[in-house]
Design brief:
The protein is mainly beta and 306 residues long. It contains 1 helix and 21 strands. The strands form 4 sheets. Strands 2-3-4-5-9-8-7-6 form an 8-stranded mixed β-sheet, covered by helices on one side. Strands 10, 11, 12, 13 and 14 form a 5-stranded antiparallel β-sheet that branches. A 4-stranded antiparallel β-sheet has the order 1-21-20-19, covered by helices on one side.
């Protein structure tokens, strides 16, 4: 079966389950923020759908935390059943990352994920029960001076797999730089990147010196690039963020990755008071899932309706 067909089947099933998980929590109606972290060590820096619970009564998603000290939590699982949403720790087995900022399921590879640290190290993980084992870790290619990464997305088209990631940028003087490359795995599990392309990107909202032009990325099944942007004035806020239609990506059967970014991105929604750092856009749905890392205020999750 082609990679694109595997992705379509798995992610369409995931879409319904993930949206159910995040929109039926009794603590708030659909579209309201659900608290999942209580402090700066438990915010949501990235989110990836995992699967259903063994008994079929709930669903699970992985979230990464941007902790930096040895022994602090790097990865957690959100488990939702009717009437409750729980957060449980995942044991990290392998070299500890510093400042994880994104996580993405690998299409066609059950229970395998790629997680990205802010300085550009990609961790290939296998998650079994409550343990995440590091299969391999490699640096991103073509890291630029001062790059600070908060986003990572995978797109499968025409039997090929490509990765998108971005330096977040900083205010008016430093736009985000979005990188894209073909991605594959060696027989021993090492993550391998093809030729890298770059595009500059400026968010339409928010604006100001504290703006991070890209705080996460997600790619829809049709190749639309959906980006979150955020403003962070400090550990106690105030925070601000938006989700925008940033452009489009295509991957040809012969392995060419083409990215076209919007000159003036269309803002799909603004979210004052929250710092979105995780974005998951299930295919076939107009309701992406957003997670926040609001520093001392903790973390929140909700679905967004556009």
């Amino acid at each position: 079966m082609k990679l694109s067909m595997l992705r379509r089947t798995a992610r369409l099933t995931a879409a319904t389950a993930l949206l159910t998980m995040l929109t039926t929590v009794p603590a708030g109606a659909a579209g309201e923020w659900q608290k999942v972290g209580v402090d700066s060590r438990s915010g949501v820096s990235g989110i990836a759908y995992e699967g259903r619970t063994g008994d079929g009564t709930g669903v699970r998603a992985l979230i990464v935390h941007d902790n930096k000290r040895a022994g602090q939590q790097r990865l957690s699982r959100i488990t939702h059943r009717e009437g409750a949403t729980d957060v449980s720790p995942i044991t990290w087995d392998g070299p500890e990352p510093v400042d994880l900022e994104a996580v993405e399921a690998v299409p066609g590879a059950p229970a395998e994920y790629l997680a990205l640290a802010a300085r550009g190290i990609v961790y290939h993980l296998k998650v079994t029960d409550s343990t995440a084992t590091v299969l391999d870790y490699v640096p991103l290619p073509a890291i630029g001076e001062g790059d600070d990464f908060e986003s990572f997305a995978l797109v499968a088209q025409n039997g090929r797999l490509a990765a998108l990631w971005a330096d977040r940028g900083a205010g008016a003087d430093r736009p985000a730089t979005l990188y894209a490359a073909l991605l594959s795995f060696a027989s021993w599990g090492q993550t391998q990147f093809g030729t890298v392309t770059r595009r500059a990107y400026r968010a339409t909202y928010p604006t100001g010196d504290a703006t991070r032009h890209i705080s996460d990325l997600s790619v829809t099944e049709t190749g639309r690039i959906i980006a979150s942007s955020a403003a962070d004035a400090g550990d106690d806020g105030p925070f601000d963020s938006a989700v925008s239609d940033a452009g489009r990506v295509t991957v040809s059967a012969d392995g060419r990755v083409r990215v076209v970014l919007a000159g003036s991105p269309s803002v799909l929604g603004t979210f004052p008071g929250y710092k979105i750092e995780g974005l998951e856009f299930p295919p076939g749905s107009t309701e992406p899932v957003a997670g926040t890392d609001d520093e001392n205020l903790g973390g929140f999750i909700r679905t967004l309706s556009f």
